Amino acid sequence: MKAITVKQPWAYLICAGIKDVENRTWKTNYRGRILIHASGRAIPYHNFFDNFTEAQMESANYFVYKKYDDYKDLTNAAIIGSVEIVDCIKGYPSIWCNYDCWNWVLANPVLFETPILNMKGKLSFWESGYEEIVCPQCEKVCLHDHTTGFGADTTFGNYCHECEHCGYMICESEWEDVNANIINKLTKAL
Question: Which of 141, 142, 163 is nearest to 151 (CA)?
Answer without folding.
Answer: 163
